[in-house]
Amino acid sequence: MEFDEPKGIYLQLRDLAYELILTGKWAPQERIPSVREMGIMVQVNPNTVLRTYELLQRKGLIFNKRGIGYFIAEDAVEKVVEDKKEEFFKNILPKLFRMMKLLKLTPETIQQRFEEYLKETPADNPETNIPKELL
Asked: CA distances (Å), 55 to each of 11, 49, 52, 111, in order?
């Protein structure tokens, strides 16, 4: 996995976990890679993975069965969707609106492009940033 965003690696790992949960690669009640396994797969220090797992645990997305490992919470998908929606409305949408205004784009134009995107992107194979090691 390549880490080049300005945000911390543990937050990029959180985003990866979100994507794995949303795509169903990490299903509810399923065991996820251990801290060490994940560190090896994405080539980061296990302490960084532990920081991410602790964050996911605080958010109620994963839970730890002592001696067995970490598992995905039953309602993880719903929680991730809510968290990502909040992030979208707070951080991404205002930037999109600003660019639409500057470029004089209409909501209808955006809607048309979005519909084209949906037609071109197969529902069973969405675009993803998940490293091959985790698939």
From this structure: 9, 10, 5, 35
**19: domain range?**
9-75
Between helix 46-58 and helix 9-22 the angle, nearest 10°, is 60
For tokens 């995905």, the residue is: 72
Which residue ranges of the chain lie beneath pLDDT 70? Answer: 1-2, 122-135
Instruction: Indicate if 60 and 86 belong to the same structural domain.
Output: no
- Residue-wise over 50-71: b if at least 16 C-beta within 10 A, else e? ebbbebbeebebbeeeeeeebb
Q: Say which CATH number the domain at 45 has.
A: 1.10.10.10
- Which pLDDT tens digit goes with each residue over 93-111? 999 999 999 999 999 999 9
Same domain, 105 and 71: no
Q: How confident is the model over 77-96, as pLDDT tens digits?
A: 999 999 999 999 999 999 99
